[in-house]
Amino acid sequence: MSQMKREAPDRAALSREAARLRGRVIQMSHKASAAHLASSLSCCDVLAAAYWHVLRIDPAKPADPARDRFILSKGHAAAALYAILAFRGYFPEEELETYCQDGGRLAEHPPANMLPGVEAATGSLGHGLPIGVGMALSARINKASYRVYALLSDGENNEGSVWEAAMLAAAQRLEHLCVIVDYNKWQATARSNETLMLAPLVDKWRAFGWDAVETDGHDVAALANLMQNVPNGSGKPVAIIAHTVKGKGVSFMEDDNNWHYRAPTADEVVKAMKELGLA
Amino acid sequence: MRNAFADELTKLGSTDKRVVMLSGDIGNRLFDKFKDANPDRFFNCGVAEQNMMGLAAGMAMSGLRPVAYTITPFITSRCLEQIRTDACYHELPVTIVAVGAGLAYSGLGPTHHACEDIALLRALPNMKVVCPADAWEVRGALRAALRQDGPVYIRMGKKGEPVIHSEVPASFEIGRAITIEDGADVCLLSTGNMLPEAIEAAHALREKGITARVVSFHTVKPLDEACLSEAFARFKLVVTIEEHSLIGGFGSAVAEWVIDNGVRTAPLLRIGTPDRFFKKSGEQEYAREELGLTGHQIADRVARALG
Description:
The structure holds 2 protein chains of 2 kinds.
Chain A: H1 11-32, H2 37-42, H3 44-54, E1 69-72, H4 78-87, H5 128-141, E2 148-153, H6 160-171, E3 177-183, H7 192-195, H8 201-207, E4 211-216, H9 220-228, E5 238-243, H10 266-275
Parallel strand pairs in A: 1-2, 2-3, 3-5, 4-5
Helix pairs in contact in A: 1-3, 1-4, 1-10, 3-4, 3-9, 5-6
Chain B: H1 2-15, E1 19-23, H2 32-37, E2 42-44, H3 49-61, E3 65-71, H4 72-75, H5 80-88, E4 95-99, H6 117-122, E5 128-130, H7 135-146, E6 152-155, E7 178-181, E8 186-190, H8 195-207, E9 212-216, E10 219-221, H9 225-234, E11 237-245, H10 250-260, E12 268-273, H11 284-291, H12 295-306
Parallel strand pairs in B: 1-2, 1-3, 3-4, 4-6, 5-6, 8-9, 8-11, 11-12
Antiparallel strand pairs in B: 5-10, 7-9
């Protein structure tokens, strides 16, 4: 599928891309016995909408100063980022076979200054949004019109640095900045709202001065439209609270937090591929 | 030092449009000239140092040269992970300027003391650690930092310190120590604003018939290895002087270098702050006296070490 720009999002095509992405991430997790599969699956629709519809990017020019920036602030979903970057042509798909292998570039969290398309080394939560704020302020100083997107996990909203950045972005009216929260209701070891009270999350972002909206985080067309509509005329940075299901797309992984750490067996991969319509 | 910093930054910012000033809500009126000249390149980032440091990294990723400034503990230990992961790991030209290092803000209490920052910052890969001795070295350090393509930490005192140089030393470069006075018996290596104490110590020693070389060893990382090699080969005693903990600071860096390089020629005496918080009320001069860091106290220790 070629990148669909500016026209209305093609829901069916974006959903197929999201399913293909899920399939690849499941295979990568199995081969590498890598954790964070469920966290990757919950944000595949966001990534598909961003990389196949919204972002103004040219994989042949990953350092283009005018490019839109997408920061995977929830760096533990690196497998999904690697896969979609490979699908988009930033590096050969065969390199995905080296995920978590000795000597490779595809570490379990995204590396700095090594992989084209990776904007920032993330994995320690609460870093991506401040970096994105710096990029958005730079756009203003350099009179550039690129947009900056940061994908955060819900657990990441525990970090105080997220809210420091949120308040500065609001004070500076950084309307080219967009946060997407992958609100899958789980963090590593517990229900998010039983750990630190995030709810009402959309109200919190709104109270911090953002134009905050809620959406179904698996509705690729809705995600594409909301992300595309940045800046949206409100004069505020945009927060999209995306309600998602951890482990989305595979019945026996959905909303089961054991899959934060578990990797699938070969049989489970086969079953998952069937459910995703990929087998 | 801080006035020199603000003035030099204003000058550098007028010629280099990549320079952006970030303040952690301090320096009331200090940056007015910079702000007037460059209103789009000054940001008060508030009392939110983690975000300030991450934001600085994001700017440096975008081709700018941010300078982030606030009181030492708040711009080092408070946001150490952002310095490590965002600035150092990405090898970004972020200049971190700390005010009130060591016991410069002694009177403000231990929350504002900073005797661990060199240890923390020099452990970070890609980081350069510069401790200017006076206002002129501050200017030299800032000029040099903004020419770097990686992160630099500049550790300043406050204001009104003795001025040693009469201009920016022509030879000022990161990693190159500056000899202030020469002597034959002992080599006093001073980092940061302890230089006036080192000079006072040298003068006190002269009255005892001991002559000292005094060096402004402004860069703790990378070390000036040529300077160290010569000092350890030539003098009967080498002394490190710093307003910083003896754990992990300048003296530790020199001791590591001595061990790693098999240098056995001269003993090393390390002068710095002890492994405890300084909890008493009092200004910097009082604190130094209490901790044995004044010039005459240093001279006494050196004389005893020389026997």
